[in-house]
Write a structure and sequence with these properties.
single chain, about 350 residues, alpha+beta, Beta-lactamase, 8-stranded antiparallel sheet, 3-stranded antiparallel sheet, 12 helices, about 35% helix
Length: about 350
């Protein structure tokens, strides 16, 4: 349960994000050791209409998906199906690597470099020509190889493998293809077998690749532009999941409770990347980044997890064994004030019990 004063602060933080321009905002906080549990929602699922947002309304997880992709690939490494430092030339068909040779020296790149954003791959997702192609035919689906072929034809590698750090959805699409090749199953089937079904994440699905589960997802925006009509296939392994706050809590809790990966295997994800640096102004900010997971300190509290472009976040606070998840569905609105208020609520509760 949540004391009334803390609940009031958190509900006000949701209202504040709506006032700042989000169509709606929702969040969930669970800290069993502190006896703290809260869920809230404000605003609506779409600008100027839509149903009132609920604490369990589905939403697009965006780059929080990267952690699920990393869990799947690191899990395969833990089973001995691949080595995280094994070159892709030994893991993927030569024909595929040849089609994508414009991306750089793919045969020498490793799965670890893909997940750590140290492969130097050009990021199709923020390419203006890609945005123009999507805008011209917003409903047309994209296959994973289509996405990478666009990147290969429209940009140059940022640096040789392991000689820099550059956040890239292209790397996660290639990681998804690696998973599919190793398992001989579609990525969404691997997600379901390795992560979603074991954790009873029954409302979560890879949009555009498997049937929807539950109600219509809340609309997501870039400022005033509603992007819900754009094909969800543009961000696949890098950001294609639809989920809910309760499901995200199950994921974060399951990951850190050892339900998905043994501790020694999960430790690969938190081997922080030397030199990882996010430039000012980028929506994704971490103090450290590992394999599909980042670390940041907010209000003096260490958080480990991931954020997504439309405002989604899924954090674990190891000091207090707490999970913080939510979204506000607008890339132009800063999620930091909401996350900071969640952290302050945890600190106040912990201090009141000390």
């Amino acid at each position: 349960m949540m004391p009334g004063d803390l609940a009031a602060h958190l509900n006000a933080a949701l209202v504040d994000r709506v006032t700042a321009g989000a169509p709606g905002a929702l969040a969930r906080l669970e800290a069993p050791l502190l006896g703290l549990e809260w869920a809230g929602a404000e605003g609506r699922s779409a600008r100027g209409g839509g149903a009132p947002l609920q604490p369990d309304t589905p939403f697009r997880a965006a780059s929080v998906t990267k952690t699920v992709t990393a869990v799947a690939l690191v899990g395969l490494a833990g089973e001995g199906r691949l080595g995280l430092d094994q070159p892709l030339g030994e893991l993927l068909p030569a024909g595929l690597l040849g089609r994508l040779r414009g991306l750089g020296d793919l045969p020498a790149i490793t799965p670890r470099q893909l997940l750590a954003h140290t492969a130097g791959l050009y990021d199709y997702f923020h390419d203006r020509a890609f945005e123009a192609r999507v805008a011209a035919n917003p409903a047309s689906p994209w296959g994973p190889v289509d996405l990478l072929e666009h990147a290969a034809g429209h940009g140059e590698p940022s640096f040789p493998p392991d000689e820099g750090f550059s956040y890239s959805d292209s790397g996660y699409v290639l990681a998804g293809l690696t998973i599919e090749h190793l398992v001989a199953e579609p990525l969404h089937a691997v997600y379901r077998a390795q992560v979603l079904d074991p954790l009873a994440m029954d409302a979560t699905y890879l949009e555009g690749h498997e049937p929807a589960r539950g109600g219509e997802p809340a609309h997501h925006y870039r400022g005033e532009t509603d992007l819900s009509a754009v094909t969800p296939t543009i961000d696949w392994a890098g950001g294609g999941l639809v989920t809910t706050a309760p499901d995200l809590v199950r994921f974060v809790r399951g990951l850190w409770a050892g339900q998905l990966l043994p501790a020694q295997v999960r430790a690969e994800m938190t081997r922080w990347t030397p030199g990882a640096c996010f430039p000012p102004g980028i929506a994704v900010r971490y103090d450290d980044y590992g394999l599909g997971i980042g670390r940041v300190a907010i209000e003096g509290l260490e958080l480990i997890g991931h954020t997504g472009f439309w405002g989604a976040f899924a954090w674990y606070a190891p000091e207090l064994d707490a999970v913080l998840v939510g979204t506000h569905n607008d890339a132009a609105v800063d999620r930091a004030p909401l996350v900071a208020e969640l952290c302050r609520a945890l600190r106040r509760r912990a201090n009141s019990q000390s």
